[in-house]
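B., you asked whether I could sanity-check this one before it goes into the benchmark set. Here's the sequence:
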Amino acid sequence: MDEDRPARRRRAASVPRVGAALYRTRITHLRRTPVHHYFEQRSYSWFVDLDALPRVPGWLRPFARFEARDHLWDAPVDTLRGRIDAFLAGKGIDLHGGRVTALLQPRVLGHVFNPLTLYWCHDATGVLRWVVAEVQNTHGERHAYLMPPTSADRPAVVDKKLYMSPFTGVDGCYLVRAPEPEEQLDVTISLLRDDQPAFVATWRGARRPAGARQIMAMQVLSPVAPLMSMLSMRVQGALLRLRRVPTIPHPNARPARDRRKIPSTPLMRCPQ
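And here's what the prediction gave me:
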């Protein structure tokens, strides 16, 4: 209601903000079926408060641009914070001005690619209530999974909804462990089929200050990180094709006659 807006603004203003940080990350991918395939990649990610996005010096902005259009969907208030609020509102959730933090990769020299963005959504008292995992594929499609808070011993389970790879299709479900990072980042996502992990990805790193020196260091250690991430995925896809791993065409694509396909199977329900 309109008369509640001033109170919400006061609550939002009283919520302590989180300073931005960088995580120098090690990302691993382990595919267990139908072949064993492992690779890892070094990169970095930003941890930010959506109500206090970093203001980098002008000469560094080409290396760290945070733009709403790169995440989720259009919203009446078309900012990153406005977009996550609109998504939550569609699920009947109102944080009443509570803090939202995110782990993501910004635009670098005009390039952007976030296979996974995580949002930690707190209520007005600072209690973590929800985690949102936004995934994007190389076709430019995206989906957001709403989960309760997770930890190493309390993962969340969600049905897979988005086609992410021609080698996995959309069956199965994800087991997600994504605690809000502090000094260490430690995220694990497993794709389950028949209650067994068919694919496991980890995202780990140590927290560093988001100063100009660190930002420039990351450009040397992981130049044009979003572009390198996409190229890495394409290279690994080519290697899997060379190993003759069967593929599943995109649901909206017309299958080629000579494409080796995995027989279609009914979607499985995730364990509750």
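One thing to flag: DSSP finds four helices and ten strands in the chain. Otherwise nothing jumped out at me.
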